[in-house]
Design a protein that fits this description.
The complex is a heterodimer of chains A (240) and B (216).
Chain A: H1 2-21, H2 33-61, H3 64-77, H4 79-88, H5 92-107, H6 116-119, H7 130-136, E1 146-147, E2 151-152, H8 155-167, H9 178-196, H10 198-207, H11 211-227
Antiparallel strand pairs in A: 1-2
Chain B: H1 2-50, H2 57-71, H3 74-81, H4 85-88, H5 91-113, E1 120-130, E2 133-141, E3 152-161, E4 164-172, E5 175-176, H6 177-191, H7 196-213
Antiparallel strand pairs in B: 1-2, 2-3, 3-4, 4-5
Helix pairs in contact in B: 1-2, 3-5, 3-6, 5-7
Classes of the chains: A mainly alpha (240), B alpha+beta (216).
């Protein structure tokens, strides 16, 4: 375990170091563009062949209410990660909201199946992750990277995902067949996410001239929006 | 005597600066209110057209298109999306591109038009970016959205010049349309030797395909 963490740390350090020195003719901070495009196209093929059909079947076979419960369950399970990162970012009020949400939904919401925090208590909802925390601490995103299946995952966010494993209480609970549980959970969370974005992604693809570039742009804009907690970035508005 | 005069002059300058920021503050507040009013009024006008059952779908579409044309500065948006390539394009090429962009924008709009389902926008405030440059914030109110969903923010970048307002950009849930389009077109141009005509031709083809099939 420790050896793995060390290896990740070393790899991450290398990637992050690459941010400062990589050449960037296109101005889009995408020095590995050719590799990324290949990976992007591979992901699209896998999506067309497997992921999207599974997500569509899921939507067809499982009623709204059940799908909402599945979604709520996973969102709730991930709240401790949000809580840890709220605290690391010094967000007192938001960490309080997260703690309250987790408590309400886990108890009154029957193990997270029902989002009573929103429907009954009108509690605002947000998520945080270590990639966002790193950004708040001043770490740059790094060169754009596309991972297999997962998709866009630049160094700062990739490191963030690894660290968040340590913030997830499920990592420490001794489940028999921990690997199967983790894998199953990842798959189901993936299907849930894909099912919720079927129309959106299709829409973006249809409207783009260069789908890869559009996704790259949208990924970054979305991340920056998350990092700013939804506040508009008035200092960086385009100069029209 | 001179020393006192210097202090007096400094005080005068300081006072003038303060007063002018005060005045600027007041006119800025006025400009914000005017921009917000512009957005809300036009949101309501737009909704009137969209919900006008006495018109055919075709008529509603045409009226709404005319309405949008008067509201937005499409030329400015189009030229922005060209990015650095704009500087090397001839005026004729720029004009041809703006025309193709306009047609493509409306082809996309028409294809998505049928999906309108009773949503409305509510102005929640505005953030000034400079003189005659406001970001008006609204919230999407969707009767069809499930109860738990966070409201989607839609921001309008409004420019004022000569007493006339126009929308030059839209930001939906933090995603800026002009930026996204510029990066999309920029990638295409990078792979086509910065040839604006190639981009123009591509947009024309797409617009034609959308019109022919009725779908994006």
């Amino acid at each position: 375990m420790r050896a793995i963490a060390k290896a990740f740390g070393a790899g991450a350090a290398l990637l992050l170091a690459g941010c400062a020195t990589a050449p960037d003719p296109s101005g889009a901070n995408d020095p590995y563009e050719s590799f990324n495009r290949d990976m992007f196209n591979f992901n699209r093929r896998v999506d067309r062949a497997v992921i999207k059909p599974v997500a569509e079947a899921y939507v067809d076979a499982v009623p709204d209410v059940a799908r909402d419960s599945v979604h709520n369950f996973f969102v709730n399970l991930d709240l401790p990660i949000t809580f840890a990162n709220d605290v690391l970012q010094g967000e007192v009020e938001r960490s309080g909201e997260t703690a309250l949400r987790f408590t309400l939904n886990s108890t009154l919401g029957v193990g997270g199946l029902f989002d009573v925090a929103t429907t009954n208590f009108k509690l605002p909802f947000h998520t945080e992750d270590f990639g966002q925390t790193l950004a708040v601490w001043g770490v740059e995103e790094g060169p754009y990277l596309v991972f297999p299946i997962v998709g866009p995952n630049p160094p700062r966010d990739a490191v963030g995902h690894v660290v968040d494993i340590a913030f997830d209480p499920m990592t420490y609970i001794d489940i028999r067949e921990q690997f199967l549980w983790s894998a199953g959970r990842s798959v189901l969370e993936g299907v849930d996410l894909r099912a919720r974005n079927l129309e959106t992604l299709e829409s973006i693809e249809r409207q783009s001239i260069d789908f890869y570039a559009s996704v790259r742009s949208l990924y970054r804009q979305n991340r920056n929006n998350e990092i700013r907690n939804g506040q508009p970035d008035v200092t960086n508005l385009p100069n029209l | 005597m001179l020393g006192f005069g210097n202090s007096l002059r400094k005080m005068l300058i300081a006072f003038t600066l303060l007063a002018s920021t005060g005045v600027a503050g007041v006119s800025a507040a006025y400009a914000s209110a005017a921009a917000e009013n512009f957005v809300q009024t036009n949101v309501n006008r737009g909704l009137q057209i969209l919900n006008n059952k006495s018109l055919s779908k075709q008529q509603r579409q045409e009226q709404f298109r005319g309405f949008l044309l008067g509201l937005t500065d499409l030329r400015r948006i189009a030229l922005y999306t060209l990015g650095p390539a704009r500087r090397t394009a001839t005026p004729a090429d720029q004009d041809a591109f703006v025309e193709a962009f306009r047609n493509y924008a409306f082809a996309v709009y028409e294809a998505e038009f049928t999906k309108y389902g009773g949503q409305t926008l509510r102005v929640t405030g505005s953030v000034p970016h400079g003189p005659g440059d406001e970001l008006v914030r609204t919230v999407l109110v969707d009767p069809q959205a499930s109860k738990g969903q966070e409201p989607i923010g839609v921001d309008f970048r409004v420019y004022a010049s000569g007493g006339h307002f126009s929308v030059v950009d839209i930001v939906v849930a933090g995603l800026d349309l002009a930026i996204t389009e510029q990066e999309d077109f920029g990638a295409f141009l990078a792979q086509h030797n910065n040839d604006v005509r190639a981009l123009t031709a591509n947009l024309r083809q797409r617009a034609e395909r959308v019109r022919a099939t009725g779908q994006l």
